[in-house]
Amino acid sequence: MFNNFFHKMASPKYFYRISGRLIPWLAIAFVLVTLAGLYYGLVKAPPDYQQGDSYRIMFIHVPAAWMSMFVYVVMATAGAIGLIWRIKLAEVVAISSASIGAWFTFLALVTGSIWGKPMWGTWWVWDARLTSELILLFLYLGVIALYNAIDDKRTAARAVAILALVGVINIPIIHYSVEWWNTLHQGPTVTKLDKPSIHLSMLIPLLLMAVSFKLYYAFVVLMRARCEVLERERHTGWVRELAETK
Amino acid sequence: MTPKRKKRLMLIALMVAGVAIAAGFALKAFNENLMFFYTPSAVAAGEAPVNHPIRVGGLVTTGSMKRQEDGLTVRFDITDNAKTITIQYTGILPDLFREGQGIVALGELGKDQLFVASEVLAKHDENYMPPEVADALKKTHDEGTAGSAVNTD
Lengths: 246, 153
Prior knowledge:
A: about 0% strand, B: alpha+beta, CATH 2.40.50.140, 5-stranded mixed beta barrel
């Protein structure tokens, strides 16, 4: 049964139907969780003992940074599945994730920079954390550029998957950069083995925003994947049927 | 899994492992260059070059901050709880600069062991809490053993 489900999901036609039903629910959940997260983060959470109110940018910055790495892992995994099993849908998910991940990375870099100016006293430094995150942005841009440079989309997807898999080494480097080397960027607050060094009233909105960003990614990647599926399958019977009935 | 797929899986695993090993060696080779700053202990051990722009980082020692007569130049000590460096800096300090706070200074180490900084950045720690909690922590801490402030560990 389990195997059967995956075989069905891998069929573009079935995926198109199911994802169409999922998207509205994911979008509604995203709006609700985001509103809750912003309310708790911007209204309910107390100011920080050192930074006052300016720490609140972390409710965007931290989830964006987590997502930048999460989306990359999803993209590389989907790429590997596409390479090994030659599943078209995995290729579609991989390339549909690339630009979303690139925007998350960009958001993390920009919000970090805006926070860095008043807190550190500089917009940017070349420390290990900031540099490896910038490399992540370049990896995403490289993936997008490479995909668009090759006309045959199935060949392009294979090339992109290899690039994404080579770049996956950057993910542990980003995560551990603050522990392996001296950096200006502070160490992990939540994702460490020790108890999180953040007060509960600030941790709750942070986790809500993390869920919100995940939901956003989930419904946007499905929307993008549906477009990509339609474009790739435009000569097949079911897509023509779909176009005629609408 | 068909033999063909197995082969492809092995090839990908080999590629990722190869890249990881290569990256590991490269990062190990460049380890020193990847350090954003030297600690006072590293400077004391003579690892940092003299008369060459470097960054040093550490916690500002409580009670070491002294403003010079011109009103803009400050002198303070930073420490990593083992060794200490004296820093001299002329200019505006960042908002988070205070005694007990981590900082990173860019400048040159003179022969007299005085570090003349051209830029001072505040290093934020990973602790976030409301002011009341910080006060309560500080109170219990002060009542307990004397030592460094709460936010410095």
